[in-house]
Recover the amino acids of this structure.
């Protein structure tokens, strides 16, 4: 039996900031992995990547990365490299996305 | 310190202006990434895992207090308040945004700095012994030659598109602190039988996927013929170096495949056919350059400082720090101070902007305003009066810069790894932090003695893991970080590549394994005088292998 297709998302870096970004369903970009569009077939993944690459004037280095759906039905990174890309340096939680997340929570509190 | 002449100034400013234009064209869509990428790399701008990274050259690791302050300013104004000193004697900023990078390069040009030749298949910035001009064991300061090489190689049209990048390192001392045998070309100043100063030329060293220790190409090249000789080597490499396979393109592969005899024959033939004199540096220009590297005027001092001895007797922390972190200076009554950026728990090589400013101020107060970056990711203040050491130490303590661990187990080299680097296969900094914390008792670490641990986050080996007494290489295996351990590497004149001890280890097993290796060393060493690397040479890797794998299984059982 052929191996089941592992769902994929498209990720890249933002041209101006360099920050990690993800392709959305609406054809835009988000900085949140959980808001990324998920491709469930090889064809859908290729189409998602192709559409994303058309934005090459504002993004850099789009590629497909594996994902899985969490309990809330949102995509979660599976590979450790992609997990680190959603946080920032693992030994400095005051830097990168994780730091922004924290300050937002603090604001909300 | 070398000072730019008008040509240098104009050259650097022109590069910044051009880069400003290129960035603008990329932002407004006139340049594609494909077109822009080589241009940004030529100006030291990389795109990493989380952000852009700007790599700034610190030629031969020498900089002034003024330059260090400017780096602090850049860290605060355009980055996140810190910088990372690398094994290439560069500094990297990890968070610049694209539109700011021309501003940063302008701020660098204000203090005669730049990011040229930190990337691309050209002759990269020449690295040098970080004790140059100060070391007691030095024949001559190698930096004027390094500067002449920089003049010759910067933008050299024939060598701008080499098969691959090309790294040259130079030392003027017998004891090699610049890892010259791990470079494409390594240069060591020496005297011939008549007392003339010349250069021993080593070629074909390098780390990465296929590591090699360099071999001597020519025993002695008179100083004035060096550029011509280097040009001959580069020509042979440019012509015969492989361009069909990126992984086989470095000169080390050419030397390995063709053999040193064959390379020597070709280089000598090229050298003989050259119009040597046209490449002999103009003596006036040479003198101009040498003048800039003239040492500060040292006071005539007795070599021993009763003041220091008294202070040491009263302060054990000072005593420990002086013993580990200072070296013999060529001028009596002076010492070379190394400030390790290795406080256990911190990222190796990172300095905050406050620390940079403190180092700049202290170098001005106590060290003729000069600083060095070592390839071991530490900062050197090269000319300090022994009588000032106690005051300097007290000031360093206040800035958390007085860790007495130079050359000890917690003085670890680590590349940025998967916490920053887009090429990484595993993390290296947190591994270094874990190990350093295990050896943070400095008295215990001193009892262990010299131990160089070097960690890379991928096969590219920026962390020089092959040369570590204990080398650690982070890879990926079955979707997890996995670390290979090597023992017995050596970066000095006794250069050697470490030997792998067995299957890779999981992330959380690396620290305990290093501890077991050190315990095995303590149990097996012939005497406290036998260093770790000597013990590995004598015993081979077996006892350490047993300690790592069998004891691990036993503990787990
Ligand atoms: S060794 Fe690999 S992971 Fe480390 S800095 Fe170099 S390229 Fe990046």
């Amino acid at each position: 039996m052929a191996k089941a297709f592992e769902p994929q998302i498209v990720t890249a870096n933002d041209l101006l900031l360099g920050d990690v970004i993800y392709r959305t369903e609406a054809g835009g970009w988000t900085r949140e992995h959980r808001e990324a569009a998920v491709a469930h077939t090889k064809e859908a993944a290729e189409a998602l990547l192709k559409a994303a690459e058309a934005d090459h004037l504002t993004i850099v280095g789009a590629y497909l990365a594996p994902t899985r759906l969490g309990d809330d039905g949102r995509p979660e990174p599976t590979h450790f490299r992609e997990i680190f890309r959603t946080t920032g340096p693992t030994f400095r939680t005051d830097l990168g996305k994780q730091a922004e997340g924290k300050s937002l929570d603090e604001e909300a509190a | 310190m070398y000072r730019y002449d008008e040509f240098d100034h104009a050259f650097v400013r022109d590069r910044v202006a051009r880069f400003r234009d290129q960035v603008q064209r990329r932002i407004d869509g006139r340049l594609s990434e494909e077109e822009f990428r080589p241009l940004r790399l030529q100006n030291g701008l990389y795109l990493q895992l989380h952000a852009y990274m700007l790599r700034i050259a610190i030629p031969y690791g020498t900089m002034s207090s003024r330059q260090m302050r400017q780096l602090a300013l850049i860290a605060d104004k355009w980055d996140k308040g810190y910088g990372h000193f690398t094994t290439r004697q560069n500094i990297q900023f990890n968070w610049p945004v694209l539109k700011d990078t021309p501003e940063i390069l302008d701020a660098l040009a204000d203090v005669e700095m730049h990011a040229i030749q930190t990337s691309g298949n050209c002759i990269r910035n020449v690295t040098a012994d970080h004790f140059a001009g100060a070391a007691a064991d030095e024949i001559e300061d190698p930096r004027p030659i390094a500067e002449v090489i920089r003049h010759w190689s910067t933008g050299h049209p024939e060598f701008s598109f080499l098969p691959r990048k090309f790294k040259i390192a130079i030392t003027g001392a017998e004891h090699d602190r610049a890892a010259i045998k791990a470079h494409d070309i390594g240069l060591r100043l020496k005297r011939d039988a008549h007392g003339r100063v010349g250069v021993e030329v080593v070629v074909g060293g390098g780390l990465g996927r296929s590591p090699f220790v360099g071999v001597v190409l020519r025993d002695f090249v008179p100083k004035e013929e060096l550029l011509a000789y280097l040009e001959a080597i580069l020509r042979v490499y440019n012509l015969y170096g492989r361009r069909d396979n990126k992984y086989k393109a470095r000169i080390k592969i050419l030397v390995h495949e063709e053999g040193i005899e064959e390379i020597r024959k070709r280089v000598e033939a090229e050298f003989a056919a050259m119009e040597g004199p046209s490449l002999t540096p103009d003596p006036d220009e040479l003198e101009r350059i040498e003048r800039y590297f003239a040492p500060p005027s040292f006071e005539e001092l007795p070599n021993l400082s009763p003041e220091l001895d008294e202070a040491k007797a009263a302060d054990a922390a000072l005593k420990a720090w002086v013993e580990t972190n200072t070296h013999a200076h060529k001028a009596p009554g002076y010492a070379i101070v190394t400030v390790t950026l290795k406080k256990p728990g911190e990222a190796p090589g990172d300095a905050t902007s406050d620390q940079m400013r403190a180092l700049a101020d202290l170098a001005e107060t106590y060290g003729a305003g000069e600083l060095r970056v070592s390839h071991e990711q530490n900062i050197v203040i090269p000319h300090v009066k022994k009588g000032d050491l106690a005051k300097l130490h007290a000031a360093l303590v206040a800035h958390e810069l007085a860790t007495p661990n130079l050359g000890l187990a917690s003085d670890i080299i680590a590349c940025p790894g998967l916490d920053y680097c887009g090429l990484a296969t595993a993390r290296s900094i947190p591994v270094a932090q874990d190990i350093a914390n295990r050896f943070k008792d400095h008295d215990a670490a001193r009892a262990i003695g010299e131990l160089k641990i070097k960690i890379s986050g991928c096969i590219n080996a920026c962390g020089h893991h092959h040369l570590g007494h204990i080398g650690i290489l982070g890879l990926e295996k079955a979707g997890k970080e996995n670390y290979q351990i090597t023992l017995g590497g050596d970066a000095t004149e006794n250069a050697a590549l470490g030997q792998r001890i067995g299957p890779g280890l999981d992330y959380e097993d690396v620290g305990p394994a290093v501890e077991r290796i050190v315990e095995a060393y303590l149990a097996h060493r012939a005497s406290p005088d036998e260093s770790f690397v000597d013990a590995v040479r004598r015993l081979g890797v077996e006892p350490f292998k047993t300690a790592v794998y069998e004891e691990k299984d036993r503990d787990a059982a």
Observations:
- Residues 8-101 of chain A form one domain.
- Residues B 415-417, 421, 423-424, 456-458, 460-463 surround iron/sulfur cluster (CB under 6 Å).
- Confidence is low (pLDDT under 50) at residues 102-109 of chain A.
